[in-house]
């Protein structure tokens, strides 16, 4: 696009922003619009340096910088999802470049999210969504891809973002351990040795991240002593985790672990005896339906020539998206107990005459939990019975992070932990 074309394009957009020139406009109206456009174009001495860039291209550059800064690939996915929705909104508004935006766009975009049937409308989700959009837009501003005067200030963002109480935030809204125990009993009784049973154990009993679950190969499950096991060391059935950043690395396509610390990225995780039997059933026998939902359902390698431990219904390795969908399904009260009475599920049943399909539960049920929220609840539960150092090695994080970020125990629960140790002595 030439400089002349760029200028003309900006003038056209500025005219659009003022509502356009109606056929009955007076000369005074035209003069007022022209003055407004001229003032806008002269507002920033560096306006000529602003480049018209399409939003998808902008995010591609944002992603490259994310990777260059060695940030976790899994943490990028929420930004990509938010920006994809933002691009959809821009398309519907007829905006081609970020320079087509005005500083009032956060409110209009939030209104669109609220009115959209397919997107999460909860206060927490909308607040986090807008924060991610803000991050990418600020990145674009620093590169000269949007006029600074069109970038909303902090007050504008704060005025649009829903107020979220502390108890509504994701880290303060883990899966309650008591619900986790209820789900554990249900999945054992109804899906013993099946894929859902194994997945739930990894999520709730071991607090594994999605990246760790995906990274497990069939051979990483060791139920019997291998020939190369050191003679001086006792053997325990275990899972072997290893970081493989060379295998993919973007979103759900690769097999790296999130935590890169050597002692945590490559570690052996001992299995409780009762859990080892569940895993054995999964790989050797299958569920009550035969091979369906078991490791025997798929015996072909994935795109890397490896054999995943957890396979999908139609895939050689369970995808991160499926892990998330299954976590939401398992934690929906309708799955493991009575029919869910949250507003989302009631509205869905009233409209469709049934509950949401398992893969769509997360869009409607207000009581479900993500894998990360299950992990928070799992760690809180594990710390009731084990030391911080032991739990840190099981779940793959540092003791300090456990204490400062993951442990959501209240003062009474913490007191009981101390009492169990103090009084037993």
Question: What are the SSEs and their pairings?
Answer:
Layout: H1 3-17, H2 27-43, H3 55-68, H4 73-93, H5 105-115, H6 123-142, H7 154-160, H8 177-191, H9 195-205, H10 210-215, E1 221-222, E2 238-241, H11 262-265, E3 267-270, H12 273-284, H13 320-331, H14 333-336, H15 343-352, H16 361-364, H17 371-382, H18 388-395, H19 399-406, H20 411-424
Antiparallel strand pairs: 1-2, 2-3
What this model shows, in words?
It is a single chain. With 425 residues, the chain is an all-alpha fold. It has three domains: 3-43, no CATH class; 55-164, Orthogonal Bundle (DNA polymerase, domain 1), CATH 1.10.150; 181-336, hpI Integrase, Chain A. It is 53% helix and 2% strand. Strands 1-2-3 form a three-stranded antiparallel sheet. It is globular, with a radius of gyration of 26 Å. The protein starts with a helix and ends with a helix. Mean pLDDT is 81; it is low at 1-27 and 36-47. Residues 59-152 form the Phage integrase SAM-like domain. InterPro entries: DNA_brk_join_enz, Integrase-like_cat_sf, Integrase_recombinase_N, SAM-like_dom. Residues 1-28, 222-258 are annotated as: Disordered.
């Amino acid at each position: 696009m030439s400089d002349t074309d760029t200028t003309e394009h900006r003038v056209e957009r500025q005219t659009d922003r003022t509502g356009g020139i109606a056929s009955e406009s007076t000369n005074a109206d035209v003069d007022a619009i022209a003055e407004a456009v001229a003032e806008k174009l002269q507002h920033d001495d560096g306006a000529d340096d602003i480049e018209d860039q399409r939003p998808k291209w902008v995010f591609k550059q944002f992603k490259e910088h994310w990777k260059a800064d060695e940030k976790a690939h899994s943490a990028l996915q929420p930004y990509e999802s938010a920006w994809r929705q933002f691009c959809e909104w821009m398309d519907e508004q007829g905006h081609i470049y970020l320079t087509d935006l005005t500083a009032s766009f956060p409110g209009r975009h939030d209104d669109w999210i609220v009115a959209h049937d397919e997107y999460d409308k909860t206060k927490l989700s909308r607040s986090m969504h807008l924060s991610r959009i803000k991050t990418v837009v600020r990145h674009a501003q620093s590169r000269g891809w949007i006029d600074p005067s069109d970038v909303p200030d902090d007050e504008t963002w704060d005025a649009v973002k829903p107020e979220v109480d502390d108890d509504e935030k994701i880290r303060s809204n883990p899966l309650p351990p008591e619900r986790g125990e209820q789900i554990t009993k249900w999945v054992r009784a109804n899906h013993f040795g099946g894929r859902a049973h194994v997945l739930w154990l990894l999520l709730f009993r071991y607090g594994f991240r999605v990246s760790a679950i995906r990274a497990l190969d069939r051979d990483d499950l060791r139920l019997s002593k291998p020939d190369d096991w050191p003679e001086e060391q006792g053997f325990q059935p275990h899972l072997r985790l290893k970081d493989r950043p060379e295998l993919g690395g973007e979103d759900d396509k690769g097999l790296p672990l999130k935590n890169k610390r050597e002692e945590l990225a490559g570690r052996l995780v001992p299995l409780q005896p009762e859990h080892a039997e569940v895993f054995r059933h999964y790989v050797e026998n299958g569920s009550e339906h035969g091979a369906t939902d078991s490791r025997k359902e798929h015996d072909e390698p994935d795109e890397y020539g490896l054999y995943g431990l957890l396979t999908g219904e139609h895939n050689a390795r369970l995808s991160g998206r499926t892990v998330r969908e299954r976590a939401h399904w398992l934690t929906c009260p309708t799955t493991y107990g009575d029919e869910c009475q949250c507003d989302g599920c009631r509205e869905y049943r009233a409209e469709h005459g049934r509950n949401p399909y398992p893969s769509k539960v997360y869009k409607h049920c207000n009581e479900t939990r993500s894998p990360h929220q299950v992990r928070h609840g799992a760690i809180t539960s594990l710390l009731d019975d084990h030391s911080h150092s032991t739990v840190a090695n099981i779940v793959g994080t540092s003791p300090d992070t456990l204490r400062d970020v993951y442990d959501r125990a209240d003062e009474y629960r913490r007191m009981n932990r101390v009492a169990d140790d103090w009084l037993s002595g």
